[in-house]
């Protein structure tokens, strides 16, 4: 799974790298994060029709525009009774995307990129028989220095039935990160990893005209190798959110470090 990641590259640099036409104000104001956790607001990249003023005073769909928006991490399906289901849907398994009702429709029409500077995973370690709690080693997993990875994501709109039509907070935008079987040595840390889409797949993944099965095939594209670094246990606490979380663990618990 992917349960923690970092996204600290500034919005303008991401806009240049991802060829964005627009950055929503709330996305621009979202500060750097070194410990993003489920239910947090996160930045996503989408391609949707621009809303244009209509003669009747409403809006109409304009040209398709690539933009950065804000979504809550933890997908809430449109049919959900309440948003409480979100924390259980922070990840969507690649193997069952076409089958699960919560993910099949977003896969067809609402795909996004989740920009990240890297993510964290915990390796379960062997424990002595008398030890109750299984010891774990936290790892920071990241692309080459200066590079940003783009996780394959899905997003959804949920309408709060308790709010009136004129309430701007009546719509909740939420997102999930697609995961797959770990490979490239990362399986030694955990059996799952987020899908990092290569740059050449970004356009097709975001294109609303690309169908679900064609989009699903993009998830099998090879990606650049990722690197690992053992880090301290502070990352396991959501109260800590600072650059020091990325520093190497001076006293790692893992006797067989996975260094890639």
Explained architecture:
This protein is mainly β. The protein has one domain (4-119, 147-225): SOS response associated peptidase-like (hypothetical protein yedk fold). Helices cover 13% and strands 35% of the residues. It is built from 5 helices and 13 strands. The protein has helices at residues 11-17, 25-29, 101-109, 202-206, 212-218, and strands spanning 4-7, 22-23, 33-36, 41-53, 59-73, 91-93, 111-116, 118-124, 136-142, 149-159, 171-181, 192-194, 227-231. Strands 2, 4, 5, 6, 7, 10, 11 and 12 form an 8-stranded mixed beta sheet that branches. It is globular and about 70 Å long. It starts with a strand and ends in a 29-residue tail after the last strand. The relative contact order is 0.18. It holds the Pfam family SRAP. InterPro entries: SRAP (IPR003738), SRAP-like (IPR036590). Residues 231-260 are annotated as: Disordered. Keywords: Covalent protein-DNA linkage, DNA damage, DNA-binding, Hydrolase, Lyase, Protease. Its EC number is 3.4.-.-.
């Amino acid at each position: 799974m992917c349960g923690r990641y970092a996204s600290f590259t500034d919005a303008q640099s991401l806009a240049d790298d991802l060829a964005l036409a627009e950055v929503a104000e709330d996305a621009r104001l979202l500060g750097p994060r070194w410990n993003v956790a489920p239910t947090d607001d996160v930045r996503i990249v989408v391609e949707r029709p621009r809303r244009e003023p209509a003669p009747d005073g409403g809006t109409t769909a304009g040209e398709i525009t690539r933009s950065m928006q804000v979504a809550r991490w933890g997908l809430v399906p449109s049919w959900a009774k309440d948003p409480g289901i979100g924390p259980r849907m922070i990840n969507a398994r690649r193997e069952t995307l076409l089958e699960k009702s919560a993910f099949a429709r977003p896969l067809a029409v609402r795909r996004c990129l989740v920009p990240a500077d890297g993510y964290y995973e915990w390796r379960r370690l062997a424990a002595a028989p008398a030890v109750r709690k299984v010891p774990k080693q936290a790892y920071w997993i990241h692309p080459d220095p200066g590079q940003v990875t783009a996780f394959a994501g899905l997003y959804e709109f949920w309408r709060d039935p308790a709010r009136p039509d004129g309430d701007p907070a009546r719509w909740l935008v939420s997102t999930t990160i697609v995961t797959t079987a770990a490979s490239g040595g990362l399986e030694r840390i955990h059996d799952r990893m987020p899908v990092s889409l290569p740059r050449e797949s970004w356009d097709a993944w975001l294109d609303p005209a690309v169908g679900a099965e064609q989009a699903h095939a993009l998830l099998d594209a090879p990606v650049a190798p990722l690197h690992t670094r053992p880090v301290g246990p502070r990352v396991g606490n959501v109260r800590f959110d600072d650059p020091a979380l990325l520093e190497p663990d001076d006293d790692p618990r893992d006797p067989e470090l996975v260094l890639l």
